[in-house]
Design brief:
By secondary structure, the protein is α/β, with parallel strands linked by helices. The chain has helices at residues 9-17, 23-41, 49-65, 109-116, 159-166, 183-189, 223-233, 253-257, 281-296, 307-312, 316-329, 343-353, 357-377, 404-414, 420-424, 453-466; strands at 44-47, 78-82, 120-125, 172-177, 192-195, 215-220, 265-268, 300-303, 383-387, 428-435, 441-448. It is built from 16 helices and eleven strands.
Length: 479
């Protein structure tokens, strides 16, 4: 028997529009699962039951009064918002004790877009402090846990979002990605995750663009769900430093997810260059499986050198650390409360304070020059295939058990592939095609040209049809 949480978001939207399911019934189903199961997974920091049910009742009134073609695309579909983004009237903690009592006065621009599209907001998902780490453990909530193995992390910084979707506590989730924070948890939780092109989704009105590393995006079980969410989330505001190339008039990302990609030219690499970071055999098996599937589907796949190593000359990791520390230093913190920050966040801020301005500017300049070289060198490819991560899902406590400097080193060894495309701004997805012999999800990453989300969605949907993954669910799914 199919239950509500078995259905992808696009199917829920269709059934609500046709009045076969009521938004209230859907919201109550997810809220009941959250009440009963989330202590196991730590997916949510805040749940807004009363507000969600009120939104669902309003959505239900619309389904009864409006004709289907007048209804917004996500009407009645429950979605959580990551606790780095503002949801009007709901506390926004940023995963930090310093902001644990802050209530957001307004929606962010992206959340307002989802609200206009008809989404029902279930609450706020767990995140590490200010989204700074690739795991989701903070000082204000229990750690988020991977539904495939609750002794392991669901990744970060969108770990709560991924845990919610993987455990059936939400049909899809809003997330964000500044160094891999959508693709990392999507990989370790067996989900599809999309980091859009830089400038596709405004961070406004409150979040500064800074160096353009971070963007919002979706984590979903199906490719079409991600496309529908991207259509709803895409927005630009006056004053945005970056804007993405728009789709041609009349086209949507959902259109791309429904069409065949044609024969594509795809580059592939799995080495980590001068970092010498080892790639786990299970990860390499997933990478080879994805390669073979692409070949079987008729695509041309070409071996290439690590494009970041070639373009950045081995300086990428050090220069990226300068940017990551600088972002941490920009967070407004009362000096009297600095000591309440997690050790890794204090360490990042101190690194920024002791980095001379010329060193930061030099790092930024080298990264921009390298990006120009890399985009030019890879322009002939429709997509580039690589591992998403270098290792399988890590155990809870693996990263933060031995001091900030060692923690940062371990995070770098876990995630040597993702941050390159935050620097370049290219769209990048995790595709969940592989599970290890021990039953752990191992994702593979595809990265497109600037503005090329449509191609990535078409290709990912083709892979999904050829080797479906949504039927694979963790044991707790049946509870």
């Amino acid at each position: 028997m199919t239950r509500i949480h078995d259905l992808p978001a696009h199917r829920l939207a269709t059934l609500i529009r046709s009045r076969e399911l009521s938004p209230v019934e859907v919201a109550e189903h997810y809220l009941e699962r959250i009440r009963r199961l989330d202590a196991r997974y730590g997916a949510y920091i805040t749940v807004v039951e009363e507000s969600a049910l009120e939104q669902a009742r309003n959505a239900q009134k619309r389904t009864m009064s409006d004709t289907p073609d007048q209804l917004p695309p996500l009407l009645g579909v429950p979605l959580p918002i990551k606790d780095l983004d503002t949801l009007a009237g709901v506390r926004v903690t940023f995963g930090s004790r310093v902001y644990s009592d802050l209530v957001a006065p307004a929606d962010s621009a992206m959340v307002a877009q989802l609200r206009e599209a008809g989404a029902v907001f279930l609450g706020k998902t767990n995140t590490p402090e200010f989204g700074a780490t690739c795991y989701t453990e903070n000082d204000i909530a229990p750690p988020s846990r991977n539904p495939w193995d609750t002794t392991r992390s669901p990744g970060g910084s969108s770990g709560g979002a991924a845990a919610a979707v993987a455990a059936g506590l939400a049909p899809a989730a809003q997330a964000s990605d500044g160094g891999g924070s959508i693709r990392i948890p999507a990989s370790v939780c067996g989900l599809f995750g999309l980091k859009p092109t830089r400038g596709r989704i405004s961070g406004g009105p409150d979040r500064a663009d800074l160096n353009g590393l971070s963007t919002a995006g979706p984590i979903t079980r199906s490719v079409l769900d991600a496309a529908l969410m991207l259509d709803a989330m895409a927005v630009n505001l006056p004053g945005d430093l970056y804007t993405a190339p728009p789709l041609p008039p009349g086209q949507t990302f959902a259109d791309h997810a429904r069409r065949e990609p044609g024969k594509l030219h795809i580059g592939r690499y799995a080495d980590t260059g001068s970092t010498g970071i080892a790639v786990h055999p299970d990860v390499l098996a997933a990478y080879e499986e994805a390669t073979q599937l692409l070949l079987d589907l008729g695509h041309e796949v070409e071996e290439i050198d690590n494009p970041g190593e070639t373009a950045f000359g081995g300086a990428f990791a050090d220069d990226f650390q300068h940017l990551w520390s600088a972002v941490a230093s920009a967070t407004p913190i009362d000096p009297a409360r600095e000591g309440e920050l997690t050790p890794i966040y204090q360490w990042l801020r101190e690194r920024a304070r002791t980095t001379p301005v010329p060193a930061y500017v030099g790092a930024s300049a080298r990264l921009q020059r390298g990006t120009r070289a890399m985009l030019t060198a890879t322009a002939r490819f429709d997509a580039v295939l690589s591992p998403t991560l270098a290792q399988p899902p890590a155990e809870i406590g693996h990263f933060n058990s031995c001091g900030p400097e060692e923690e940062f080193r371990r995070m770098t060894e876990f995630t040597p592939f993702t941050s390159l495309y935050n620097v370049s701004g290219q769209p990048s997805v995790n595709v969940p095609l592989h599970w290890s012999p021990s039953g752990l999800p191992i994702g593979t990453m595809l990265t497109g040209r600037m503005g090329g989300e449509g191609t990535l969605l078409s290709l990912s949907a083709q892979l999904e049809r050829a080797q479906p993954w949504a039927h694979r669910v963790p044991a707790g799914w049946e509870d």
